[in-house]
Amino acid sequence: MTGIKVAINGFGTIGKRVADAVDAQQDMEIVGVTKTGPSFGCDLAVRKGFPLYCTFNDEASIARFAEQGYDCAGGLSDLLAIADVVIDCSPGKMGDENLAKYKAADIKYIFQGGEKHALTGLSYSSSANHEQNLNAAGTRVVSCNTTGLSRTLVPLYEHCGSLSVECTMIRRAADPGDSKKGPINAIKPVLKVPSHHGPDVMTVKPEININSLAVAVPTTLMHLHSIIADLPSGHGLTTEGVLDMWRNTPRVIVMHGADNRITTTAEVMELARDIGRKWGDLHEIFVWEDGVSLQGDRLYYFQAIHQESDVIPENIDAIRALMGIEADWRASVAKTDAAIAAYYNL
Amino acid sequence: MTGIKVAINGFGTIGKRVADAVDAQQDMEIVGVTKTGPSFGCDLAVRKGFPLYCTFNDEASIARFAEQGYDCAGGLSDLLAIADVVIDCSPGKMGDENLAKYKAADIKYIFQGGEKHALTGLSYSSSANHEQNLNAAGTRVVSCNTTGLSRTLVPLYEHCGSLSVECTMIRRAADPGDSKKGPINAIKPVLKVPSHHGPDVMTVKPEININSLAVAVPTTLMHLHSIIADLPSGHGLTTEGVLDMWRNTPRVIVMHGADNRITTTAEVMELARDIGRKWGDLHEIFVWEDGVSLQGDRLYYFQAIHQESDVIPENIDAIRALMGIEADWRASVAKTDAAIAAYYNL
Amino acid sequence: MTGIKVAINGFGTIGKRVADAVDAQQDMEIVGVTKTGPSFGCDLAVRKGFPLYCTFNDEASIARFAEQGYDCAGGLSDLLAIADVVIDCSPGKMGDENLAKYKAADIKYIFQGGEKHALTGLSYSSSANHEQNLNAAGTRVVSCNTTGLSRTLVPLYEHCGSLSVECTMIRRAADPGDSKKGPINAIKPVLKVPSHHGPDVMTVKPEININSLAVAVPTTLMHLHSIIADLPSGHGLTTEGVLDMWRNTPRVIVMHGADNRITTTAEVMELARDIGRKWGDLHEIFVWEDGVSLQGDRLYYFQAIHQESDVIPENIDAIRALMGIEADWRASVAKTDAAIAAYYNL
Amino acid sequence: MTGIKVAINGFGTIGKRVADAVDAQQDMEIVGVTKTGPSFGCDLAVRKGFPLYCTFNDEASIARFAEQGYDCAGGLSDLLAIADVVIDCSPGKMGDENLAKYKAADIKYIFQGGEKHALTGLSYSSSANHEQNLNAAGTRVVSCNTTGLSRTLVPLYEHCGSLSVECTMIRRAADPGDSKKGPINAIKPVLKVPSHHGPDVMTVKPEININSLAVAVPTTLMHLHSIIADLPSGHGLTTEGVLDMWRNTPRVIVMHGADNRITTTAEVMELARDIGRKWGDLHEIFVWEDGVSLQGDRLYYFQAIHQESDVIPENIDAIRALMGIEADWRASVAKTDAAIAAYYNL
Q1: Cβ–Cβ contacts within 10 Å for residue B205, how many?
Q2: CB of B55 within 8 A of CB of B9?
Q3: pLDDT per residue over A79-91, tens digit each?
Q4: B144 in catalytic set
Q5: Tell me, what's the ipTM?
Q6: Which of A161, B46, D56, D309 is a good FRET partner for D131, with 20 to 30 A between their CA atoms?
Q7: Residues 6+ apart with CB under 8 A from A150
Q8: C42, C89, C144, C167: which is the annotated catalytic residue?
Q9: Is B164 an interface residue toward A (CB < 8 Å)?
């Protein structure tokens, strides 16, 4: 079967992961990925058999690939011409420029959470607003943090009918492969109060009332959210009831920290490595069972977010939404996750 | 003048600092400090001229000091016999045992925040309940975190008449001189939800309604608090009004992070080193001016806590409270801080 | 085909990796792995289809597995009874006790580098002394550091005929999944001078004269070796000649750091994640091309060691040596590595 | 008495420390310090009573200080006009430009180790070449690393008559007050092999033959040197003899790590904080007694370097050398150190 033709514009941290996830699916395929020039990262595309395109369209830029021994199939325009949808995984600040190119090519487009909601006027999170994105021209998959918040807050909201949330985000200061950024020994508060992170949830589920504060800390593995959610009276939930709800929520893992000796993000990522997805990725949000407590109408909990990968399966679901081939978000999620598990022999 | 005779039981991280702070005052003096045995830490006492006692009373333990060339003036009982008040700075889990000794010696006693409130039935924080501690037999100076919360919350409470607070504590995982503890690269949530830290404020100011969550992160310098305080309606405050209140609060520093390039706890501690107290200590709580925001009745702010030293001046004030020599907390605080500044030529 | 029957005693950091590597080969198979009791780690064995045995032989210990829903095929003795060779991956200090059990079961045994050479009287490193291990009763695969040193030093020695080496080992203080150990912000010299690490090379290649110094630093990813090797006069090598030698050495990667922006161990491990072995493992030793310099007869170079995994393929080769089924170390290495690559679809 | 008039050009990490050290001496005084503009750092100068000058000479730059409430005594030229010697503590890359200004003002000048030897053609380390610097027009105090190497290697050289040294420098990646630089979790080899650090020793003691390799690690406290020194045969030394030599060397501390529980740079810096110099500085080089071992003619040892402060007393000695007021380096060192100890009540 010939599936949806997907282009990846930017084959870096997110791009390489989305490409693999697309490659894993039955109903879509990679028609090409772009790099700005020949570099070590091209080898990964070659090994996977993904056609390599140049981010730029000029002959000189394209010719540089051949000089280093890489086949280059053309420029970005050539790639867009043969694709149904493009996943924009280019570094920040290119949004407006790239959007114009995608519209000119008359294909659907998906941006990442580094871009502002205003760019697309529509955002996406699988459990929050898949239906709203059906057949849209383009969308923005929300950031790793917003995706993580949506995973646990949306089912809570849907049960309760209203929700008021405060979140302190303890963020990893740099990704594992980034040796430039600090701090080495300090805590850095984000001096924009409240921060933009929490309210971004409202781009996919405006009914949830949420604010956040953020700090960066000297670790590379995961973000951690310290969350307080005020439920409306009459919610009928217990701590155990909340846990059960999340146990039945896709892409959420609930585990007891003390019983399993998973007491920090280090052990969570070790669990992820054992699962066996490439790069040791953890697509799920990790909730500590013994870190959840409902006190009256106020729910306290911690969750950990793998900043490099939790949005990867959401991109796949977003493709299906835009292409209008799967109207039920749960069906898309099940399809996406089963295909990825099979791909990696999990 | 002969001042209040102060014994320090345990001359470690806190003990050595309290000893210096006592030494700086006009109305009190160190009559001795204890060590469990001869070690490098004894040199510091010798250099300062503090009489050295043994934590234990048996001859053999006392004799070990002389073997290593240190004068030892006797055992703990000998020290307690000549003191008016003892500051307990011994490591944890000795509270009950030590309390019995202090009562037997019929002297006043001050424990630190590592002990539980139940041990003494009375706790202390200078701005919160100095009056309540006047002439008491003994008390407990609350922990570094609780002291920090009291500094900024008590004046807020006193202005507003009621206060409801949630705090996420991002804790340094180990002290600067501790090379044993991790994590090196992880975030560790405290899986007791809510944590005990916030509610401890209610031992000194029960009218403040407070809960907290805590995480430990790989840094050694300071704790950071991410705080949300709900003010009662009609509070009449603005963000600027709150800042002014804290600018006029003793032992609170309010500075603009962006303007002064003090964007993390690293720069805060560098500021402390410039101030010039021994060990680079920061007795004050540091509040980022640009990290404070009052949104309706909800106040958001960040504060940083020097875990090794913010309780030091509180111990001095607590001595005056127990001895009944200064009924006005503001007067005691002013006296304490001026004497310390003079001692270090600040 | 029925291959060599391999038992894994201890299914932890090393055990789980060796099990996968054995599973990847055509000429051997896993007949069982041991765990001390039911725990999360058992799930990994279940998912892989490895029969689960109990480290202990008593009924009560074995019964605990069933209580938690795990099939347990028996105790260690039952496992040893059906195996040809056992890979000892149990935690330290069990060497003597376990060796007695393996001898009693009359099967071949392979210990890891955490045990002393004296336990087995024979050690193993693929390129150093495969032949010496042919048909032996048992051996010890040397540690990650010693394996790393052997990879680059043995070919150098074989070209030069003699070699005198000093190495400073900058060690990661804890593994990525270990959140207990520090230091968070310090450098820790190993105050045994010279350290035991370098001389351990002489258990597999006694002709290399080597000493070492070691320090631990606050990172989890890799060890790094800073090496000075004195070549005998008349060696005929150049810096480029040394690089070419290593480019042709199995399990050594030579890359230019500046050109590829691989300037720290963070980028090296990112490269490893891109390769795609489970757990993001790097079986190869990484040598920075621009960190190698031959000055007269003295060679300077840096190499990075993935402490969790470089010994994994050596264990496979050691099995073949003990079983006497492949006398040529290069043939075994090629077989091992090709099978692992195929297993992970690299 | 009116002493030598010292100007500090650049009142930052090094400048503020040198200013205090000058202020501590009997035979010299601070006549002014420069800042580029009004900022928090000016407060420190004001508190110390150091006249404040502007780095620039133009009216507008000078006027900015008054606008922020600081007295500014003039521009750099005004300061140079009243000084006998200027200590250049400005950030890098200004060397040539500043040297021209100092020569134009016809005063003596001292640069720091961030500048190249070629700038001044003369470098300085108290124990290495004080005599060579007597009455010179200007010099360069070598870097913290080179100063540290000189402290322990020069006496060794002087005893032995020749010395061949290899050093691996494990460097702190950022200073404690610097929150920008990484890496957070990686080891970074300096891919210039050999590195420039070791050979810089030869600018002050060319007779010592030395090379070095360097790596940066995620810590802020101290550098650590892993050193191998080859002594000439017939040196007559033992490990204990080397230790005795260093015990008698100024500005070297020799302590047993295991006995004193000083096993990492964290505990060394805690020792420094106990000593009580401002900023918790450690002017001495710290050598672990149990990390020194002479094996035949090869000496192995570790030493730790407080990168922020070990050069501070050397700057004072260098002033005396240039001004020709103290020909004996040991006499100058004794004078410098005693004055600093008295200044801080140590």
Answers
A1: 22
A2: yes
A3: 999 999 999 999 8
A4: yes
A5: 0.96
A6: D309
A7: A125, A127, A128, A142, A201, A204, A205
A8: C144
A9: no
